[in-house]
C-alpha cells in the first residue's frame, strides 16, 4: 500500500484502473465517493457495512459488505476476490452498472422530474 496524496481526476482514474478491487474498512461513512468512483471504474468493493455504504454496494453482486470489526470475514472477502478473476470481472461489471445511478446527468434528470412533479406538470 502506498499513500499517493491528493490526485487529480485523470490520475485517480489511472489508479483505479490498476486496482483489482477497492477496499474500505471505515468505522463510519455516509456515502463515500471512493466507493462510487471505484464502482464507476468497474471495480468490486469490499467495505464495512456502515452508514450509507449498504445503499451503494450490492452485497454479493458488486462487492462484499462485512460487519464492522469482523476482520476474518473482511480478509476472506478480499482473498476471495483476489483469487477469482471471473468473480472480480462479474462484480466489476455489476458495480459499473450500479454506479450509473450517480452520474451527474442521471441525478440531474431525476431532480428535474421531481421538480416537474411538484409543480404538477409532466416532464418533457
Total separate domains: 1
Question: What Rg do the Cα atoms give?
Answer: 16 Å
Please, how many helices? Answer: 6
Largest sheet: 3 strands, parallel
**What is the CATH level 1 assignment?**
Alpha Beta
SSE series: HEHEHEHHH
The gross shape turns out to be globular
Structural class: mainly alpha
Average pLDDT for all residues? 94
Give the low-pLDDT segments: none
Could you outline the blueprint of secondary structure elements for this entry?
Blueprint: H1 9-18, E1 22-24, H2 33-40, E2 45-48, H3 53-56, E3 63-66, H4 71-83, H5 85-99, H6 104-118
Parallel strand pairs: 1-2, 2-3
Helix pairs in contact: 2-5
Description:
The chain has one domain: Rossmann fold, CATH 3.40.50. 52% of the residues lie in helices and 9% in strands. It has 6 helices and 3 strands, in the order H-E-H-E-H-E-H-H-H. It has a 3-stranded parallel beta sheet, with helices on both faces. Helix 2 (33-40) crosses helix 5 (85-99).
Q: Features of this protein?
A:
Rossmann fold; mainly alpha; 124 residues
Short summary:
The chain has 124 residues and is mainly alpha-helical. It has six helices and three strands, in the order H-E-H-E-H-E-H-H-H. Strands 1-2-3 form a three-stranded parallel sheet, sandwiched between helices.
Amino acid at each position: 500500500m502506498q499513500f499517493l496524496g491528493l490526485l487529480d481526476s485523470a490520475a485517480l482514474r489511472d489508479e483505479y484502473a490498476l486496482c483489482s478491487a477497492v477496499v474500505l474498512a471505515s468505522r463510519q461513512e455516509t456515502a463515500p465517493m471512493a466507493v462510487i468512483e471505484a464502482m464507476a471504474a468497474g471495480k468490486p468493493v469490499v467495505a464495512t457495512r456502515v452508514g450509507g455504504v449498504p445503499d451503494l454496494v450490492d452485497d454479493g453482486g458488486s462487492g462484499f459488505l462485512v460487519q464492522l470489526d469482523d476482520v476474518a470475514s473482511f480478509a476472506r472477502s478480499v482473498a476471495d476476490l483476489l483469487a477469482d478473476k471471473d468473480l472480480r470481472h462479474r462484480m466489476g461489471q455489476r458495480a459499473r452498472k450500479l454506479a450509473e445511478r450517480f452520474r451527474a446527468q442521471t441525478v440531474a434528470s431525476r431532480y428535474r422530474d421531481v421538480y416537474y412533479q411538484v409543480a404538477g406538470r409532466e416532464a418533457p
